Amino acid sequence: MRSLQSRLGIGLTVSIVTLLLVQWLAVSFTIRHVAEDFVASRLQHDAEDLLSTLRITDAALIVNDHRISSVYSVPFSGHYYRIQNENHTLRSRSLWDEDMETPALATGKVKEFHLIGPLLQSLLVWQAGYNKRGQHITISVAEDITHIEEDITEFMFWYSATTLFAVIAFILTQLLILRRSLQPLELVRQEITLLEKGETRSLSETVPAEVRPLVSEFNKLLIVMAKRLKRSRNATGNLAHALKTPLALMVQLIEQEALSATPRLQQELRQSVTRIQQLMERELKRAQLAGKATSGQQFKFEQELPPLVETLQRIYQEKGITINTTIEHDIQYVADREDLLELLGNLLDNACKWAAHQVTLTIACEHTLMITIEDDGPGCSDNAMQRLTQRGTRIDENIEKSVDGHGLGLAIAHDIVSAYDGTLTFKRSTMGGLAVAVTLT
Length: 441
Description:
By secondary structure, the chain is α+β, with helices and mostly antiparallel strands. Among the domains are: 4-149, Beta-Lactamase (2-Layer Sandwich); 293-440, Heat Shock Protein 90 (2-Layer Sandwich). The protein has helices spanning 4-53, 146-197, 212-254, 263-287, 301-315, 337-354, 382-385, 409-419, and strands at 54-56, 61-63, 79-84, 89-91, 110-116, 122-132, 135-144, 298-300, 322-327, 332-334, 358-365, 369-375, 423-428, 434-440. Helix 1 (4-53) runs antiparallel to helix 2 (146-197) and helix 6 (337-354) runs antiparallel to helix 8 (409-419).
């Protein structure tokens, strides 16, 4: 569908051109009709004068030249007459040796038509049928209107040029008015772009009255989404806090000596409680995801990453882990801050758990955001890589060293990446361990 401005502009242009074309045709027809009516009225008077001076004899038709205009006596003057009855035909001297082929008309009939006359003159002919003294006669009077047609042509040329100029000026003026009238919509489009980039949190409602309800409802929707996300996070936090105490109590009860006599039952209860803790942790994390629907928020890596890296290096201080970060200058990504901190925290924490001494973090952005995390740990087999994002999967079962955790870090990371329509892939690192590559659109 064309833009609103294009549709209105085309419609306005077609309407203006059509209107002025109809006006041009009406003026052209009217001015020609008025001019020919004026000439025809004069020819009618001349025909009546000829009728009054006409004498009919058996030998000829006679007109008193002194009682009619002298232009009918000047050769090829452009004023001609022709009188005819059943027996005779009388032509004006102005015709010289030329003639006008005009048909006979019945008494009372009047006819007006164009004719090419002597010297290729454009003649307007007025013709009528009369009855005088019992004789039926037809009088045809003609006038050369070449000069009138030339004047009309010149007038129409200048009128057409003026009309064309007026059309162009009017269309340009209306398009300018239309563009200025739709300028607020362009501002709304620009604000939506800023909203996508996270540089604003709402749209300005300084817009035309026709669009204001839409913008207002859009702003309300943004507020509702933000409130729902906040309520969801508060509710999941409250739920986690409420469940921690009963679960801690259950763990204490399981470890009591009363259950030591039944180790199998104690082990099953311990596994069940651990399973509940894993499920609760993952589902709470999933419930807190904002995803791509988040608007008006930007994650600034150069500001947010240093505290996270420093915290992880303190946690794994005993292992002597070093986290090297490479970030393209001034990368900003439109996303919920908590989502990206959770994603990076899980991936870096997983890398630090398995790393021997070193973890590298590389962040680049071209058309998409690309995050790569590598470690120099033992890595894992190709088959194990396919199971890394499965809920609760651990890859330390066949490795002698034990690593703390529930195996939910990569699974939660996978949920976050999916919420942003991204991809999460695994491969062997050039450092010997595991390389995790995240691509977010």
